[in-house]
């Protein structure tokens, strides 16, 4: 027996029950049999903390009048037929695994310390499977179909050599569907989208990253579907190129500081330090270090700059005036996707940037301009037509992070059917707690205009 920490005296908590009628139906065919004897059973239960709890019941044993079996026992209320633990134990274990995301080993330790129950690893997994049998995924699909907004975020997450495709609704905040596949290719993506179409999902706007899997297949399933590319990934790629240009300027300044005869070792005199402070000058090495520490200011949005950031940015541009071009480019790039402007304004701003000769002459910015090709840019500004459509697929990305967190606590669960059961349990549990499910009488889901209203929306 393993060590069980105790608080005070460990006194058993016992609940007595009785179920011994003269006739009792067979648990399979419900044909009544006659009682032959009465036995006493002891079943482990959950009671007060740190105390072993039992249900001691006197139940009848009956002779069957059918071909299902020869003898059977009367059921104990709150105990599965023939079980050694009550349903309360099963529910506590299932909640620890599903709701609290605890690993199996920690669940075993928790039940041992809190309720003096020495459970096996197999029993914990059987509670997980039992919990999955209690849910109805058709109810989840009915919830999805009745509350889907028309906007779909699609992304994939990789786990143990497999790929899990996710689709979410960012406006009403729930997961629409998922699919576990062995390989992330066009065939599996088409099958996933076909399954959504067969279920009755009508997509008006689809938000994805820049993967080629979505390039031509979305309009195949939903003819009038508009494609929104996640601009977060575009920002990330463009900012990386701009910061590469900042680092190149920093390295050029640093190399200039090493020219000439090397300074003799030793600290500068107090007089030299005072002269440098009076002049408020920085050495080339200090200038390069300052640029390296504050390079993020070149790509930071102007609205997010603090007073200290503005002072540092001014000094940064005084040290290296070449950075002004990079800062201007980044500022104009953010303004392409400014909320509240029209698509025509965004196109005009893009044309001015692409035709800027200074940008074209800079090798770093020339690479960044290639991200703004006309066909791709049209997909980046789809969100400007709508009042509440996101310009990123951050919603499904958050869903992916929840999945990764769930999988980190289950290193043994790597088969397809266990991954599917775990995700379905999480989806059902999330649905039950969703505000649209709990307050369906007076809270209505968000719906963007259907296809027949799109032309009216664009004209407005």
**CATH architecture level-2 label of the largest domain:** 2-Layer Sandwich
- Total strands: the figure is 10
CATH superfamily of the largest domain: Ribonuclease H-like superfamily/Ribonuclease H
Number of domains: 3
Note the run of SSEs as H and E: EEEEEHHHHEEEHEHEHHHHHHHHHHHHH
Question: Roughly what percent helix?
Answer: 40-55%
What is the first-to-last residue Cα distance? 75 Å
CATH class of the largest domain reads: Alpha Beta
Largest sheet: 5 strands, mixed
Radius of gyration: 33 Å
Q: Based on CA inertia axes, which overall geometry fits?
A: elongated
> How much is the average pLDDT?
84
Strand content: 15-25%
**Poorly predicted residue ranges:** 451-460
Q: Which fold name corresponds to the CATH topology of the largest domain?
A: Nucleotidyltransferase, domain 5
The number of distinct helices, counting runs of at least 4 residues, comes to 19
**What class do helices, strands and sheet pairing give?**
alpha/beta
Structural summary, described in words:
- With 460 residues, the chain is of the alpha/beta class.
- It folds into 3 domains: 13-134, no CATH class; 138-230 and 392-455, Ribonuclease H-like superfamily/Ribonuclease H (Nucleotidyltransferase, domain 5, 2-Layer Sandwich); 231-256 and 272-385, no CATH class.
- Helix content is 46%, strand content 15%.
- It contains 19 helices and 10 strands.
- Strands 1, 2, 3, 4 and 5 form a 5-stranded mixed β-sheet that branches. Strands 8-7-6-9-10 form a 5-stranded mixed β-sheet, sandwiched between helices.
- Helix 7 (231-256) runs antiparallel to helix 14 (363-369) and helix 11 runs antiparallel to helix 12 (343-354).
- The longest helix has 26 residues, at 231-256.
- The termini are far apart.
- Residues 451-460 have low confidence and may be disordered.
């Amino acid at each position: 027996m393993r060590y069980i920490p105790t608080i005070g005296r460990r006194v058993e908590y016992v609940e007595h029950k009785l179920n011994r009628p003269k006739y009792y139906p067979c648990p399979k065919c419900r044909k009544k049999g006659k009682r032959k004897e009465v036995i006493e059973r002891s079943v482990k239960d959950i009671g007060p903390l740190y105390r072993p709890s039992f249900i001691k019941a006197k139940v009848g044993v009956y002779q069957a009048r059918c071909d299902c079996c020869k003898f059977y026992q009367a059921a104990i209320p709150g105990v599965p037929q023939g079980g050694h633990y009550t349903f309360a134990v099963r529910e506590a274990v299932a909640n620890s695994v599903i709701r609290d995301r605890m690993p199996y080993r920690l669940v075993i330790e928790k039940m041992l310390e809190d309720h003096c129950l020495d459970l096996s690893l197999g029993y914990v997994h059987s509670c997980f499977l039992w919990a999955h049998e209690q849910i109805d995924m058709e109810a989840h699909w009915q919830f999805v179909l009745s509350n889907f907004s028309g906007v779909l975020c699609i992304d994939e997450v990789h786990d143990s050599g497999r790929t899990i495709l996710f689709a979410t609704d960012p406006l009403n905040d729930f997961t629409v569907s998922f699919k576990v596949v062995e390989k992330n290719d066009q065939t599996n993506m088409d099958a996933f989208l076909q399954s959504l179409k067969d279920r009755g999902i009508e997509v008006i706007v689809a938000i994805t990253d820049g993967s080629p899997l979505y390039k031509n297949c979305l309009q195949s399933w939903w003819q009038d579907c508009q494609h929104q590319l996640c601009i977060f990934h575009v920002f990330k790629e463009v900012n990386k190129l701009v910061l590469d240009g900042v680092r190149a300027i920093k390295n050029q300044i640093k190399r200039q500081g090493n020219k000439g005869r090397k300074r003799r070792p030793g600290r500068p005199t107090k007089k030299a330090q005072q002269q440098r402070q009076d002049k408020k000058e920085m050495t080339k090495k200090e200038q390069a270090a300052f640029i390296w520490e504050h390079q993020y200011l070149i790509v930071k949005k102007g609205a997010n700059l603090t007073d200290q950031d503005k002072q540092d940015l001014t000094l940064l541009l005084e040290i290296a005036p070449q950075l002004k071009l990079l800062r201007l480019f980044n500022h104009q790039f953010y303004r392409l996707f400014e909320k509240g402007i029209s698509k025509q304004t965004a196109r005009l701003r893009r044309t001015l940037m692409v035709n800027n000769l200074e940008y074209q002459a800079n090798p770093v910015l020339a690479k960044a301009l290639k991200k703004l090709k006309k066909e791709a840019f049209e997909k980046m500004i789809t969100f400007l037509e709508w009042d509440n459509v996101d310009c990123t697929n951050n919603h499904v990305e958050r869903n992916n992070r929840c999945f990764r967190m769930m999988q980190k606590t289950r290193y043994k669960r790597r088969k397809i059917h266990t991954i599917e059961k775990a995700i379905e349990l999480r989806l059902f549990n999330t649905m039950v707690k969703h505000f649209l499910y709990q307050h369906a009488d007076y809270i209505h889901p968000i719906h963007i205009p259907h296809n027949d209203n799109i032309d009216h929306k664009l004209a407005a």
